[in-house]
Amino acid sequence: MKSYILATTGDRVRWYLYDPSRPEAGFSLSDVLNLKSVPIHADKQQAKAAAKMLGLTTWRYFSF
């Protein structure tokens, strides 16, 4: 089963860190992908919903 995380869209990818239970509280960015720190979503729809709650207008999905 694939899981999804959110990342920036530029040439230098950074990872969105936030509390999935309170996405309205905002986010920070990390230069290092630590799978223990980034929220992981079960599907693209969950990741998209989180991105919209964070107020993002563009983002990139990564699956693993």
Can you characterise this structure?
- There is one protein chain.
- This protein is of the alpha+beta class and 64 residues long.
- It has one domain (4-63).
- The chain contains 1 helix and 4 strands; from the N terminus they run βββαβ.
- The protein has one helix at 44-53; strands at residues 4-7, 15-17, 28-30, 60-63.
- It has a two-stranded antiparallel ribbon with strand order 1-4.
- The protein is globular.
- The N and C termini lie close together (9 Å).
- The mean pLDDT is 95.
Lay out the secondary structure.
Blueprint: E1 4-7, E2 15-17, E3 28-30, H1 44-53, E4 60-63
Antiparallel strand pairs: 1-4, 2-3
Large-scale geometry: globular
Overall pLDDT level: 95
Regions with little confidence, pLDDT below 50 for 5+ residues: none
Give the SSE order as H and E letters. EEEHE
User: Count the helices. How many?
Assistant: 1
**Oligomer classification:** single chain
Structural class: alpha+beta
